């Protein structure tokens, strides 16, 4: 890896109706379910960026997310991305005006790829993250793109879709392995490597992190420049500082904590 | 009691401006997002943010009649800070959109960073401070700042470069010309170090 690259450690918060979904285990949080308080904590801990994934089903809940973003922007001074329910330029505008730095598109982009170019044309490619959920399909010898949290298969090849998304103006790929998500077995390195070699924009590896060694592998073996994790941080198993120490010990440049 | 310095953040409809406003408030300013010339001329300091493409930002700035307002603010001598594409717009022009005219406040051109590295540079990186500047006071020798950019400023007078980073090449990422400060990185997104820089900027307002 080029020595000028500095890898990013990115905690991800799943939010529904304005509350963090997975329980968190920071002992001294006033309100462990408040995404804003959790985000501020990660900023203080030395996280490089944050991702909020809004998994709210209802449109009322979506308005709640705008409020979360707005309150986060008052307290959190590192970049953050908002995903979930971004279907058109107006949705992106609302989140960016509220204080998000990037929006991620997933289902809407598969259904109508122009949403990527529409948002990029208005706000710049740097703020469009294409989130891709992929699962290995042995019969077709490829990773297939899935929607709706892995429930709905598409006919898209994940590597080809990543290339297309970048050509449409996505500035970053957030790549989640549906095979590994929740397993704690580590990233799907082959998938991560296939996508990171195919595109010239940053790839964030996601899905499967069970220990800090896994984060390092995402960068050294997978070619990702960002590593995303939820439970190992939320449950208090590890701090951001510990993650960066391990990555650093593997020769990865990181922004030191503190 | 000293009044909080009034900082006008120029609002011309582009992406996330609220972070810059909130970060300035955090470091003691009374910051407003505005496109009102009266508000800007009454401000103690002015910030020109920017994200996206050079030409689109210049067009948007002109569409809301903020080009002259920007020149007036710079000429008035108040501390002025350009951030990211807001920094790039201070130059004469950019390789990104060769037909678009910049503000011409810092003579020089904005040029692509080397293609030997991933573009954009979307990461934290460590500054090499070239000049002892009040803007950098108390930030340490090599503060970490957050970058998202594919181009960097190459001023005619290299003396106005106040900091560089290493990314494929030595890139110019902070500038000063008189009362005008400019950063390629996002201080409002650079945690403690970035807030420290904004604090220094707000503190430079003469009481």
TrEMBL record, chain A:
InterPro entries from the UniProt entry: Aldolase_TIM, His_biosynth, HisF, IGPS_HisA/HisF, RibuloseP-bd_barrel
Keyword S-adenosyl-L-methionine: no
Pfam families xref list: His_biosynth
UniProt keyword annotations, A-Z: Amino-acid biosynthesis, Cytoplasm, Histidine biosynthesis, Lyase
SUPFAM superfamilies according to UniProt: Ribulose-phoshate binding barrel
One of the protein's GO biological processes: L-histidine biosynthetic process
Recorded GO MF terms: imidazoleglycerol-phosphate synthase activity; lyase activity
Principal subcellular localization: cytoplasm
Top-level EC class: lyase
CDD domains: HisF
Record's catalysed reaction(s): 5-[(5-phospho-1-deoxy-D-ribulos-1-ylimino)methylamino]-1-(5-phospho-beta-D-ribosyl)imidazole-4-carboxamide + L-glutamine = D-erythro-1-(imidazol-4-yl)glycerol 3-phosphate + 5-amino-1-(5-phospho-beta-D-ribosyl)imidazole-4-carboxamide + L-glutamate + H(+)
Record's function text: IGPS catalyzes the conversion of PRFAR and glutamine to IGP, AICAR and glutamate. The HisF subunit catalyzes the cyclization activity that produces IGP and AICAR from PRFAR using the ammonia provided by the HisH subunit.
PANTHER family: IMIDAZOLE GLYCEROL PHOSPHATE SYNTHASE HISHF, IMIDAZOLE GLYCEROL PHOSPHATE SYNTHASE SUBUNIT HISF/H IGP SYNTHASE SUBUNIT HISF/H
SUBUNIT field: Heterodimer of HisH and HisF.
Family: Belongs to the HisA/HisF family.
Name used for this protein in its record: imidazole glycerol-phosphate synthase
Protein species of origin: freshwater metagenome
TrEMBL record, chain B:
Claim: Lipid metabolism is one of the keywords in the record: no
UniProt GO molecular function: glutaminase activity; imidazoleglycerol-phosphate synthase activity; lyase activity
Reactions catalysed: L-glutamine + H2O = L-glutamate + NH4(+); 5-[(5-phospho-1-deoxy-D-ribulos-1-ylimino)methylamino]-1-(5-phospho-beta-D-ribosyl)imidazole-4-carboxamide + L-glutamine = D-erythro-1-(imidazol-4-yl)glycerol 3-phosphate + 5-amino-1-(5-phospho-beta-D-ribosyl)imidazole-4-carboxamide + L-glutamate + H(+)
SUPFAM superfamilies: Class I glutamine amidotransferase-like
Domain (Glutamine amidotransferase): residue spans on this chain: 9-202
PROSITE patterns, alphabetized: GATASE_COBBQ, GATASE_TYPE_1
Pfam families for the chain: GATase
One GO term (biological process): L-histidine biosynthetic process
InterPro entries assigned to the protein according to its UniProt record, in alphabetical order: Class_I_gatase-like, GATASE, Imidazole-glycPsynth_HisH
Pathway, per record: Amino-acid biosynthesis; L-histidine biosynthesis; L-histidine from 5-phospho-alpha-D-ribose 1-diphosphate: step 5/9
Keywords per UniProt: Amino-acid biosynthesis, Glutamine amidotransferase, Histidine biosynthesis, Hydrolase, Lyase
Record's keyword annotation contains Cell membrane: no
Subunit structure: Heterodimer of HisH and HisF.
Protein name: Unannotated protein
